[in-house]
Amino acid sequence: MRLILLGAPGAGKGTQGVRLADHYGVAHVASGDILREHVAEGTPLGKRVAAYVAEGELVPDDLVLAVIGRAVVAAMETGGYLLDGFPRTLAQAKQAYAAATQGDIAADAVLFLDVPDEVAVERLVDRSATSGRSDDASIDVIRHRLEVFHSQTYPLLDFYRQDGRLVTIDAGAPPDEVFDGIVRTLDERLGA
Ligand code: ADP
């Protein structure tokens, strides 16, 4: 199974990503987790990305590729993968597509976890108490991340809709229900 997860901050990409990767037995590549590891370890790349992440800005495309490119390619080479948080800009999507189609390993489906902004904000504010994430700590940064999602990532929905791979999931329900809905939908569409 080859999947891409799209969704606003707070849509549940991380929660569903872990479960789906486990369910389908594929590598889970979470771009935000990899970026945060670099920041926590203080690597040279981590130092260059820290401010973007803390302010809720996207990390520039070339830097993101420098940090996560190898993990994405390694996951793609295993045949099955789940990409969570990447691609997030049209340029990233086109690059991922070019790399994947060369090896005939484009995603089977692109899941869009759809939640209203206010639900996302509420979840992120709740999560801020325990996540320890610099970008969950302020309501302004939370709101900014949602704006960035709408302006920079939302256009990817059309890109994937055009080639028929977009699957929209109502992600406002509790996690177990969302997970069951995703698996049912994928089973129906792909006979997985
Ligand atoms: P969320 O979706 O809740 O914001 P993520 O862990 O996916 O959480 O991303 C956290 C931050 O990491 C983003 O706000 C951004 O700064 C950076 N980031 C993650 N993935 C990408 C990407 N593909 N391109 C650019 N920046 C990214």
Question: What would you note in describing this structure?
Answer:
This protein is α/β, with parallel strands linked by helices and 192 residues long. Helix content is 62%, strand content 13%. It has helices at 13-24, 31-41, 44-55, 61-77, 90-102, 117-131, 139-153, 155-162, 175-190, and strands at residues 2-7, 27-30, 81-84, 109-114, 166-170. The chain has a 5-stranded parallel β-sheet with strand order 2-3-1-4-5, with helices on both faces. Helix 6 packs across helix 7 (139-153). The radius of gyration is 16 Å and the shape is globular. It starts with a strand and ends with a helix. Bound molecules: adenosine-5'-diphosphate. Adenosine-5'-diphosphate binds at residues 9, 13, 31-32, 35, 52-53, 56-59, 64, 85-86, 88, 92, 135, 145.
